[in-house]
Amino acid sequence: MTLYGDKHPPADDRPTVLVTAVTWPDEPEAVTPPTATGGPDNGGRRPRRVRMLVATGVTGGVLAAVAGAGAWAYAGDVPRGTSVLGTELGGRSRGAADRELRAELDRRAAALAAPLRITVGERTAEIKPADVGLGVDVVATVAAAAEADAHPVSRLVGSRTVDPVVTIDTDRLDAALRTVLGDQVRPMTMPAITYQGTTPKVVRPKPGLAFDTQRSAEAVRTGWLAGTPVTVPLVESQPATTAEELDRLVGELAKPAVAAPVTLRTDRGSVRVPPAAIAKSLRFTADKAGKLTPAVDVKRLRAALGDSLNAIEVPPKDASMTIAGGRPKVTDGRAGQQLDTATLGRDLLAVLPKSDGREVTGELKPTPPELTAEKLAGLGIKERVSTFTTRFTGGMASSRSQNIATIAKEVDGTIVLPGKTFSLNGHTGERGYAQGYRDAPVILDGKLVPGVGGGTSQFTTTLFNATYYAGLEDVEHKPHSYWFDRYPAVIESTIFWPSLDFKFRNNTDHGLLIDTSYTSSSVTVSIWSTKIYDSVKTEYGPRRNITTPKVIHLEPGPSCIPSNGINGFAQDAFRVIKKGGVVVKREKFTWRYDAEPRYVCGPKPS
């Protein structure tokens, strides 16, 4: 007999559990009690309690079976029926799946390590998987397997294959593929518009031929796992700006831009912007895709206009510092008025295509000084950290002495902010007659000859030593070819515009002031800041490889400067820096001096 529970109203279509009635072997046959009339109950059916027990027991058995199946299906972290590389990982914990997958990879180790045959364009080569970082990320693969379809039905009867997570070093793969590709690769020729004087010059765009990094990596991953040869697809890439668009830019902007000047009007007057200045500042820049975009480089425009901007602009003046009464004294700066560069570039670009109405209005905006008195006062410039003096002869009537005084005055009062690098050439610019320098002996091609700016090397050596004994970072310096006894050996520096420079970096957390002074026989440079070292001293090694000078006879005349000659030698100098009573830095400086010849103005005796 089949039961569907006790009672089911005809309209109730809820799902039911199909069970079969059973009897228990040691249960006595049920006796039906008489009814009120003395007869048996209708049909002799089992009592309701017995039927309830039967249904409940059977239902419990079925539910237990279902629960058991569910427990089986959900056993482990990885759903049953899940495989990777043909290896069943289903029903395992992540740790067990990890071990099983690694075992499978060990079995395939030889095949996975075999060279991979790759074709790029018309060339074929073999690449070792290890050379491009090919491998299986086991942890990531097991995680992907654990996250596979977990629907209850599919866990019971489904199966699924999870692809392994393959790693690859795309940079190393690119390098390997470029080696195979060789001269087949053809980079894009980017479009360009430049000016030769005021004439536009163009570079026409051309497509490039290369491989796509992501597509190449995917092809290599697939071929490596399958053990099949790989063909890397080559892709032709076109610059975003076409040849037709390039011609349009030339005709509509590049040519008319330099056809006539532009008038720049401001509240303080007007400035004429000539075609040459426009050509130097109008830039056509191509991005990585080859998209050409025009813009006015206002910084270049300002440089091209030069001193003409002085008629309408007032430059800001930084706060300054001097030493008065043995103490630093701050003098406040002042704000200036300068062109608003953000609007100027945009407005100028808008009128350049026009043949008339070539005018722009420039807005003068208040420009604060870069270095204010408040900022300067907070830089920690409070005490003299180092000082150095060198001496010279001839008095201030000497052209050489005058040059030393001129460069000393130019550098005096210079503030170097924390982390910034000071360049002596960059600070003074060219040192010529227009800047007040005079002819004096300089070393050129190994001998003393008259030259503008002679003597500035003595100031350079003095400044170098002041920064050296302040413990500041040496960035660039070059000792003289010959040693002069007015300078300390090795710890000295020459300078020559524009090829030889002296640079140092303020490698402290404080600002510093360069204070210079001179007399008729000496020049002194002092560094003011916050003292951070106990001492900075020099230890010398012995002179070695000493050479003696030759005697050279020169044609007499105003360009001939005689000299007595100086021995050459090599020597080491060590900068020893102490802080807190211990040596914190020991730096080695080494130089080899040539023997300066003894120059004689006159013929060699017969």
TrEMBL record:
Which InterPro entries does the UniProt record give? Glycopeptide_resist_protein, Vancomycin_resist_VanW, YoaR-like_PG-bd
Q: Name one Pfam family in it.
A: PG_binding_4
* Keyword terms: Membrane, Transmembrane, Transmembrane helix
Residues covered by region (Disordered): 24-47
Superkingdom assignment: Bacteria
Regions annotated as coiled coil = none
Report the transmembrane regions from the record: 52-75
- Residue ranges annotated for the YoaR-like putative peptidoglycan binding domain, each copy included: 253-360
State what protein this is by name. Answer: YoaR-like putative peptidoglycan binding domain-containing protein
